[in-house]
Amino acid sequence: MSDKRSGDNVSTAIGINHISVSVSDIATATEFYSTGLGVDTAELEYDRNTAARFAGFKTKAVANSVIRFPNGHLEFVQYPRTAEGSTDVIPVKGPGVTHVCFQSPSAENIYDQLRSRGATPVSRGDEPVHLLGQGVYYAYARDSDGIMYETEHLDRPPFDGPIWFSHVALVSHDLDRMVEFYSLLLGADPNRRTNSATGPTFDQVADYDNVKIRAAWFDIGNMILEMWQFINPVTPPSETPRSRESLGYNKVAFEVADLRREYHRLNRNGIKFLSPPESLEHCRELYLRDPDGNLISLIELEADSMQSVRKLKQKNW
Question: Is residue 2 scored above 70 in pLDDT?
């Protein structure tokens, strides 16, 4: 991601460090994704409960696990059953963080690998959809908690290895407002936008008739931040923020090189925080919400941390 701001408004964001997801059972979720995708687990370097407490969250996680991709991390968090929150699945049209995307060479067929472990298809048909005729095949499915993910099979993958953690997707009723917020947060404009994506293959992937969307993509070094607004069917407004305990994606953590600088820069631009920067073992972190109420954090890790984006592969295509 190249900076497009100047002076004191330059962001020090260097990538998406991890995406956190609330699950009903840590062991089940970890086994499903790590075995189904052929990736390894990783150790947490600091106490997420301590970080969350600084932001005013009182419910403690009872278990955490992390799986490590070549370019990012997916964290699973389990909360007490009595504090589990809503189990309602987020529809494809949103609003909220609807999915993450895993890419693989077409020969790897991670779509079938995850289906064989109990995933439920969302997209129409028995195989991923050749959406735009460019050698990329797309499909949505849900795990046993109803949490949606996307697989993309590529005939000519631009990355080395069998798997890539491609993107995280936010769906909003007001795409322009979200683009403005994240352009400020990341210090860069979207790399790509469209105001009219439509067609029968979009209907197949999303399982809606006559789909029409607007979209924007931020290329953030190691991953993509994808944003959609459904025009048909209409994405409804976000009424109240989802609780961290509700099953589903509950935080996107952006790694920055200088957390205190980001705190003061964004404060000057009117951004409100749930917590100031707090020092933890091996890192510093703060929490905030985007205009739709999605929970995000900014995190600064020690330079030699194995969980830093600096130690991960970067998207160079």
Answer: no
Angle at alpha carbon of residue 50, lines to 296 and 253, rounded to 5°: 20
Neighbour tally for 27: CB within 10 Å: 12
Q: Which of 281, 300, 294 is nearest to 43 (CA)?
A: 281
Q: 7 falls in which pLDDT band (50, 70, 90)?
A: low
Helix, strand counts (H, E) of the chain: 6, 17
What pLDDT sits at residue 84? 57
C-alpha 142/C-alpha 230 separation (Å) is 20
User: Please, what is the Cα angle at 249 between 293 and 53, to 5 degrees?
Assistant: 70
- The CA distance from 227 to 313, in Å, is 23
Please check whether residue 186 is in contact with residue 220, taking contact to mean a CB–CB distance below 8 angstroms.
Answer: yes
* CATH of the structural domain 7-311, one choice from 3.10.180.10, 3.10.20.310, 3.40.50.300, 2.30.30.30: 3.10.180.10
Give the start-to-end residue ranges of the domains of the chain.
7-311
Nearest CA to 44 out of 295, 282, 254 is that of 282
State what percent of residues in the chain have pLDDT above 90: 82
- What pTM was estimated for this model as a whole? 0.95
How far is residue 105 from each of residues 20, 148, 284, measured CA to CA in Å?
A: 25, 21, 36
Rg (CA), the chain: 18
pLDDT tens-digit readout, 208-262: 999 999 999 999 999 999 999 999 999 999 989 999 999 999 999 999 999 999 9
CA-CA distance, 107 to 93, in Å (whole number)?
30
